[in-house]
Amino acid sequence: MGAGQSRSRITEQDKAILDMKVQRDKLKQYQKRVQVVLDREDALARGLLLKGDKKRALLALRRRKYQEQMIQKTDSQLFTLQQLMETIEFSLVQKDVMFGLEQGSKVLTQLNKEMRMEDVERLAEDTAEAIAYQNEVEEALKGSMTMEDEEDVLRELEELERQEEDRLRLEMPRVPVSKLPEQVPVPQAEEEEEEEAEEEETPVRSRNEPMVA
Are 157 and 77 in contact (CB under 8 A)? Predict the structure, then answer.
């Protein structure tokens, strides 16, 4: 009886470890694919800022922040659970491990939804459907982000604004700020030529010519 329970416990542990590794592998694959979405959201936020649409730029950055944190937290949780299984008797942590695997599976499903590029593009559209989606995303993010997260996003928005202002300043043609000289100096060679011409026109009096009284 004891041997049978031991074999059953080991089998459950092996299955849990395998499931854990599968989830972490999927998470790494999703991380590469989500990066494309994150880059697009960053570019979208910059474009919206140029149009003066700070509200939707902020929404794109909030969504980006949420996705980044989702990956980081899930990876950290899965790693912690894996460490528990390897260092503590499985029977003592089995309940926590199973709950963690269930949560990890839900997050992977959510990440799969987050990778749709068409949803990112809807953040900048003005159709009624897109605006309804934007409101839905904004409401969902309110309950998912802390005050610290919000402060990070606002700082990121300010940094993007500064970068775009600097870029535009560099691209603008420079206007001369110094005054033009009122008189353009004549080159020395030209002055000498003018003096010689004046001397040729003026009659030269001979030294032997008598002076008129």
Answer: no
Q: Considering the domain boundaries, does residue 110 fall inside one?
A: yes
Residues contacting residue 161 through CB under 8 Å, at least 6 positions apart: 49
DSSP assigned state of 179: P
CA distance 73 to 108: 12
Q: Which domain holds residue 65?
A: 9-169
**Cβ of 150: how many Cβ atoms within 10 Å?**
15
Tell me how far apart the terminal alpha carbons of the chain are, to the nearest angstrom. 155
When divided into structural domains, the chain yields a total of 1
pTM over 0.70? The answer is no
Residue 113 makes CB contacts below 8 A (sequence gap 6+) with none
pLDDT tens-digit readout, 69-127: 888 888 888 888 878 777 777 778 888 888 888 888 888 888 888 778 888 889 889 89
Could you tell me which of 29, 65, 36 has the C-alpha nearest to residue 146? 65
- pLDDT tens by residue, 45-54: 989 988 889 9
